[in-house]
Write a structure and sequence with these properties.
CATH topology: Rubrerythrin, domain 2
Helix content: under 10%
Radius of gyration: 10 Å
Order of helices and strands: EEE
Number of strands: 3
Strand order of the largest sheet: 2-1-3
Oligomer: single chain
Structural class: mainly beta
Shape: globular
CATH class: Mainly Beta
Distance between the termini: 11 Å
Largest sheet: 3 strands, antiparallel
Strand content: 15-25%
Length: 54
């Protein structure tokens, strides 16, 4: 499982926890997150996230 961070606001998406409040189940890989999903904090597109190691 990997972690991705929004390069604009710093919001963190963790594949292990997903984003249930947006309908993204825990364990959902980044590649399977819909392209239409946007950062819940600042609204930028999925393309504005980078993989990080925490």
């Amino acid at each position: 499982m990997k972690t991705y961070i929004c390069i604009v606001c710093g919001f963190v998406y963790d594949e292990a926890t997903g984003r249930p409040e947006d309908g993204i189940a825990p364990g959902t890989r980044w590649a399977d997150v819909p392209e239409s999903w946007a950062c819940p904090d600042c609204g930028v597109a999925k393309a504005d996230f980078e993989a990080v190691e925490i």
